[in-house]
Write a structure and sequence with these properties.
The protein is α/β, with parallel strands linked by helices. The chain has helices at residues 18-33, 54-62, 77-81, 91-100, 111-118, 143-152, 174-198; strands spanning 8-12, 39-43, 85-88, 108-110. It has a single domain, classed as Rossmann fold. Strands 2-1-3-4 form a 4-stranded parallel beta sheet, sandwiched between helices.
Length: 213
């Protein structure tokens, strides 16, 4: 991965359903945009080594996204501290991540929240300052834009706070997984497009994806 690339960590509860879909779809859309960013995933209450649910895989298949065997990983302080951007499934997950590593507050968003606010932030925005702007030296290529999104999040509230969450489809029919995958893909397309628009020259390479589980 090139210097300036931004590691992205995606988080849900068990790391067997939502976050694996988030990981694969975001990596896929970033690759389409030529954005060099490593995408990993973890769960706040994961059973280490558990596979992705079958229906999550089927939902990814339905969107034409290739995926490799998945093994769940538990969220750690080190994973949070090493990420340039942390995207969670829900506001509760976001709160858990921030409570675990308070210094990451400016780099932690729900996935749908980041897509919504990033879509309203001018490409190339950034500059110094703002919460979390210097918290991840290994993500300096995208840190200014991420900091700009953090500063703008209060200016672009959702119509309903729950709109920033991804409902858990676990235990529900396949169509619930497919609906979740479509919402994730919509957010992934927006995020990839915004990061591509604001990326530094050093990050203009194919994406590298490595499973955290």
């Amino acid at each position: 991965m090139s210097e300036g690339a931004a590691p992205v960590l995606v988080v849900c509860t068990g790391n067997t359903c939502r976050s694996p879909m988030m990981e694969r779809l975001l990596a896929h859309r970033l690759a389409e945009q030529g954005v060099d960013a490593r995408v990993t995933s973890a769960g706040t209450h994961a059973l280490r080594g558990a596979p992705m649910t079958e229906d999550a895989g089927l939902a990814l298949d339905g969107l034409g996204v290739d995926w490799q065997p998945h093994h769940a990983e538990q969220l750690t302080d080190a994973a949070i501290e090493g990420a340039g951007l942390v995207l969670t499934a829900t506001r509760d997950h976001r709160a858990l991540v921030v409570s675990q590593v308070p210094s990451a507050v400016g780099r932690v968003f729900t996935m749908r929240e980041f897509a919504r606010v990033a879509g309203a932030v001018e490409a190339g925005a950034g500059g110094t300052g703002g919460p979390g702007a210097d918290a991840a030296p290994n993500a300096t290529g995208f840190a200014p834009f991420i900091a700009a999104v953090a500063r703008a999040r209060g200016l672009h509230p959702p119509a309903d706070p729950a709109d920033d969450d991804l409902a858990d489809p676990i235990g529900r029919p396949l169509d619930a997984y497919e609906a979740a995958a479509r919402l994730i893909d919509d957010a992934a397309r927006t995020i990839a497009g915004r990061l591509a628009a604001g990326r530094p020259a050093s990050a203009r390479h194919p994406v590298e994806r490595a499973d955290a589980g």
